[in-house]
Structure prediction request, 701 residues.
Amino acid sequence: MSISVEANKGELAPEEQKRLKADLHRSLRRNKIRASMLVAPLVIFIIVTFVAPIGNMLYRSVDDPLVNEFMPQTTAALENWDEQQLPDEAIYAALAQDIIEGRKAKTIGKAAKRLNYEKSGMRSLIMGTSRKHKKLQAPYKESLVDIKKGWGDIDNWKVIKRLGASITASYYINAFDMETSPEGEVSFVDPKEQIYLKLFWRTIWMSMLITGMTVLLGYPVSYLLASLPLKTANVLMILVLLPFWTSLLVRTSSWIAMLQAQGILNDLLVWFGIIADEARIQMIYNAIGTVVAMTHILLPFMILPLYSVMKTVPPSYLRAARSLGATPWTAFWQVYLPQTVPGISAGAILVFILSIGYYITPALVGGQSGQFIGNLIAYHMQGSLNWGLAAALGVMLLVLVLGIYGVYNRVVGTNSVKLG
Amino acid sequence: MAVPSYAGPLERTWYYTFRFLCAAIFIFLIAPILVIVPLSFNAEPYFSFTQGMLTLDPDAYSLRWYEEFLTSDRWLESIKNSVIIAFFSTILSAALGTLAALGLNRSELPFKGMIMGLLISPMIVPLIIAAAGMFFFYSKLGIAQSYIGLILAHTALGTPFVVITVTATLSGFDHTLIKAGASLGATPTYTFFRVTMPLIMTGVISGALFAMMTSFDEVIVAIFIAGVEQRTIPLQMWSGIREQISPTILAVATILITFSVIMLSTVEILRRRSDRIRGIT
Prediction:
């Protein structure tokens, strides 16, 4: 590439300027593409293996194909029904067909189960009819009401019609502890019967408690580490890093050994004569167990960011404050603490985000009172098999976590995430 | 931090109280881990110290739980599974993560913030949500209850660590070195392997170790997508703690603690080496 310079002027000819600009542009774009190519494999990998599954779950939380799929004729026939009075003979005939065919294909039970989540009694209504399918005959309206009185109840039909739509808000309605009346109105259930909102509040509250505990325990230790000579601090740092590197299950099981009724802490208390042998304290399989074990597990996540911030605070500031006549307390409160606030907030948000999604530790040491929302998601995934509800609860938790993470990003910035 | 000479008696008292408080917190941090070790040599099937253990009676100690661990088919199978899954997911995480970190380090990369957010999302999203989503999605793809499914899942969870550690190493990287390599006639590939790689190697290895620990310790995703054939060590421990709690778990825990000590020392040595090379210390 040759560049011809116009004689005496030291300026480039217009066409040369243009060409140079284009060259620069091309080379910048090439660099851009090269950088993107390096990042692309991982971006694609994460999208396929991680983001797509979560997106799929999002879809599942509103997707409701069961009734639609397994009672196709009824849902089709109900589309034009006005919900004012009982459906006509044609719709009853469609239902009879669906039940007979669904019985043969063994799929009617799935639709019945889904309907039962919405209104209890639907399952026995459908399955009872299905068992007596031989009695089904025209006119279907009469014979169905004859088999099960429920078919004469307009509310049951409204439930079928509502669930016949393939997109549903019913899982979210359920997850927010609300219910839908037969008229289609959504309202909160009696506060005494709340399950999920209560558990969300408890999860948030306990996570805040755990975060508070880690600040309380982490602050003095980080201060000590930051003010000791580097050699001593590095040795003591092992005591922080070893738990950090130890398996979560190991730490949880050691808390079982520590806290259980026949455990080490109770043994020590009895040995010192603080409590009687019969009056051993129940410290595990309840909220205390969850808080203690999780505080221990998450404490390093508080100490590490706090320590790295405290390292940057010059000790001369404190001495200056003292020399100007401040009491130790004033010097700490007015001079030192404000400079460590970024560390506290970084650590606190990190601990809070991690703790709010916990599942393993509450499941193992939490008993009844120490369960988190994650445990209920797992229960609906594996126990009750109500996957739509599990997905809806999962999406709610995800929104909560991402919201807090957004704040974290504002406060700290992603690039300052450090390990060890 | 020593008591300053001008400190009054009140301040001295506070100084020692503070030291005592810190010692108590350090004990809180380390005691649960240290307690496990002697308990794993318990001769009785209990989770607590027996009278004999406290009086240091040699008969109260035994290796029976270690023997049980090493002779049980289920445990041996779980070791094999954990090693296979951790091995492949670590290599995949390290390769993908290092490449991405090199790209993220270039100033020309568009949408940097968004990409970084996406890449570290496996660290932020609660595992229970990821596990539930993977359960549905991987079943649909037909890779649930298979080694491939678990390896892919663990790779996704491990890559953020590699991205973060390698990005951190690269932040002190002198880019003129690459230009120097090029000006001396080296091809980009040659420069990468002879100049860039040795300098970022410590970051790559410690990131890979983090990824390996993640896979080795991961239980929630395993609960949801591992089949009977893919039971890993944490999964075996999980069901052991839930069903019938036997000191075999403590023996496994002790072995895992030894493992963490080795890991921790390796990462620390690497970190110091990296600081030295980059002239930080």
Q: What stands out?
A: The CA atoms of residues 34 and 40 of chain A lie 10 Å apart. The domain at 196-416 of chain A is CATH 1.10.3720.10 (MetI-like fold). Chain A has three domains: 12-51, 66-166, 196-416. Residues 415-420 of chain A have pLDDT under 50 and may be disordered.
